[in-house]
Design brief:
Layout (H helix, E strand, L loop, with lengths): L20 H5 L34 H12 L5 E4 L17 H15 L14 E4 L6 H10 L4 E3 L10 E10 L2 E9 L13 E11 L2 E10 L41
Parallel strand pairs: 2-3, 2-4
Antiparallel strand pairs: 1-4, 4-5, 5-6, 6-7
Helix pairs in contact: 3-4
């Protein structure tokens, strides 16, 4: 990702000479106490499943953490779908904790924005999920098991009959992650036989003392995040085993709310 050469602090929007060094060292009125400019803008690429319309939401503090995390051994640095301009980031969606974070995020969105029949109790699936390209069947099965029978992978036989929750993009930077999804909105006047209306949501996740939780969420207007193409994973494998170093997630923080980052 590229960092725009502009300070975007609320109290000082003056352009600076260059980036990222200038952004990192910039001390405007808002960050005069020594804090980095946590709202330096980052370019989002308007590709499939990416936010369009020039959305600028990630923080410079996250960008700096990304640089540090990508430079240290053992720290995950991942972009999904892959960005060829970032040679450091992994584009493999099967690396832990990516599948677990996807399952956690899907559950979070379904609980708060359920399909028309409700989120379900696990007795039968009430929704299907669509994942980024390259997911192995074992990790898809792991996500299904973590959803407790409420959600299943999208398949040719259910793609036209079940509401689909799409994981569009995901970034993991050491102890922080951001994920974008689109979900169907039954209350927005869906006509039988017509395509569903989808709304976008961004989640910011944080690993605090070994436990992942959703820290913030941001809802987007219809059409802001593009609906990614359907990717069928038809092969079947036993659920992948959890990574031995991957801790259990803490309960989702109920304080997460719609907010601008």
């Amino acid at each position: 990702m590229k960092i725009l050469s502009q300070c975007t602090c609320p109290s000082d929007a003056r352009a600076v000479a260059s980036a990222p060094r200038a952004v990192k060292n910039r001390r405007c009125g808002w960050c005069s106490a020594g804090r980095l400019n946590e709202r330096a803008a980052m370019i989002r690429y308007a590709s499939s499943g990416r936010r369009i319309g020039g959305g600028l939401a990630l923080a410079a503090g996250m960008a700096w953490a990304a640089f540090v995390a990508g430079s240290l051994p053992g720290c995950l640095h991942s972009n999904l779908p892959g960005e060829t301009e970032n040679p450091v980031a992994s584009v493999d969606p099967n690396i832990h904790p990516v599948p677990r974070l996807m399952a956690m995020s899907i559950e979070y969105v379904v609980n708060r924005y359920p399909p028309s029949g409700g989120p379900g109790d696990g007795s039968s699936p009430t929704f299907a999920f669509n994942l980024p390209e390259g997911m192995r069947p074992g990790n898809v099965a792991l996500i299904e098991s973590m959803l407790g029978g409420r959600g299943v992978r999208v398949l040719p036989e259910n793609a036209s009959t079940m509401p689909i929750y799409h994981v569009a993009t995901m970034w993991v930077r050491g102890h922080r992650a951001e994920l974008e999804m689109v979900f169907p909105v039954p209350s927005m006047g869906i006509v039988p036989g017509a395509d569903p209306v989808y709304r976008g949501i961004s989640l910011e996740l944080e690993n605090n003392l070994g436990s992942w939780r959703v820290k913030r969420q941001q809802l987007w207007n219809v059409g802001t995040i593009q609906v990614p193409p359907i990717r069928f994973v038809t092969g079947w494998e036993a659920p992948a085993q959890d990574h031995p170093e991957m801790p259990q997630e803490a309960p989702v923080d109920g304080s997460a709310s719609d907010t601008n980052w």
